[in-house]
Design goal:
Number of helices: 8
Order of helices and strands: EHEHEHHHEEHEEEEEHH
Radius of gyration: 16 Å
Largest sheet: 5 strands, mixed
Distance between the termini: 33 Å
Strand content: 15-25%
Amino acid sequence: MRILVLADIHGNMPALKEIAKKESWDMMLCLGDLVDYGPWPDEVIDFIKENADYVVLGNHDYSLAFDGDCGCTSEYIDLTMYSRKAVLDRLNESHILYLKSLPQRLKLDIDGLVLNLVHGSIRHPLYGFVAPFVEESNIRQEMDGAEGIVLFGHSHYAMQKRLSSNLVIINPGSVGFPKGDDPRTSYGVFEDGKYYQKKLEYDIESVVNGIKNMNMPKRVKDVLIYKIKEGK
């Protein structure tokens, strides 16, 4: 079985289309954050709703759907609220209801793999932050005694780490706004039980043009464009 693992798409439909064009899958998993930052949240939601088999709620999805706290730093709250306001009219009631229907965590037994799906961490499904530079003791706390494989997103940094004989943690990186000084779209694939980290080049300039056409201050556009072009 071939399982496609996506996270943090953030309204970046060109990146998502490139993955769909280059990859085949028997099952698709999505670890949340379909919306904010990018120009096409409606198209992303429609695609995930049609194609993904299992999806969990991200902090940005939660914030938009329930008018709640995205748990972001001041810089990212600024980017979030301006970009959201600029494209909110693209979303209809069915989009919002879909986001509201998403669970915060899932535990699956698929193809002999025990998979724990969250956006942030087991302890804090929406807001837990795990990245390659986080101390292992803190990572263990965030994983809260889980066993099997924990699939998570949120930090936008791709990583794979074995914490014990019965726990592996995997972040496929961000489809829409990857970090790690690599602007290529980032995702993961399980094939016959083995995990492969994937990166693809895509038409970043189309996203840059989309951001330029969003109705928000130039300073916000400039930050988003810098992040997406540089992988920051």
